[in-house]
Amino acid sequence: MPIISSFLASISACITTTILRRISMPSIKAMKLSSRLQRGKSWKVTMIKILRARYANDFAIRLEFSDGTFGDYDVAPLLARDTPLTAQLRDPECFQRFFIDLGALCWPNGLELSPGAIHARLRDAGALRSQSSVA
Questions:
Q1: Do the beta carbons of residue 114 and residue 104 sit within 8 Å?
Q2: Which domain holds residue 91?
Q3: Average pLDDT over every residue of 63-77
Q4: Are residues 93 and 128 located together in one domain of the fold?
């Protein structure tokens, strides 16, 4: 009997390890957030969306976000990656066909950029400004 329970315990540990390796980092963050909420701590989670996009110059787009901030996002570094989706956008006419779909920056060729990731890059670069500071 002790051999069987030892065997089952080791199998359980292997399965748990395998499952944890397959869980993505966002899932782990979500579990941590969930456990904090269960302990009674309040968290405010804000989903950032792009509200407006306007061509600025070259390969830059002026973006206005749902949190009241805005900034000029330079897409040139992304276009330099030379992928099938980004290669088409090096043509200025094609590049300027961007649009907003459900808060994300998109192009007709299927390229879609996350508003949260763009917002974070602009914030980290110090390139976000508040709408209220402009007025």
A1: yes
A2: 50-134
A3: 97
A4: yes
Burial class (CB in 10 A: 0-12, 13-18, 19+), 125: exposed
**Position 47, amino acid:** M
Q: Return the residue matching tokens 């941590």.
A: 32
Residues 15 and 65 in one domain: no
Show Cβ contacts of residue 35 under 8 Å, excluding neighbours closer than 6 positions.
none
Mention every residue, 6+ apart, whose C-beta is less than 8 A from residue 103. Answer: 47, 48, 49, 50, 51, 66, 115
Structure tokens at 5: 């329970």
Q: What are the tens digits of pLDDT across the range 82-105? A: 899 999 999 999 999 999 999 999
By three-state DSSP, how is residue 53 classified? Answer: strand
Is there a single domain that holds both residue 54 and residue 100?
yes
DSSP-assigned beta bridge partners for residue 63: 53, 71
Query: From the DSSP assignment, how many helices (H) and strands (E) are in the chain?
Result: 7, 7
Tell me, yes or no, whether 123 and 92 share the same domain: yes
- Condensed to tens digits (0 to 9), the pLDDT of residues 5-22 reads 555 555 555 454 444 444
Range 104-120 average pLDDT = 97
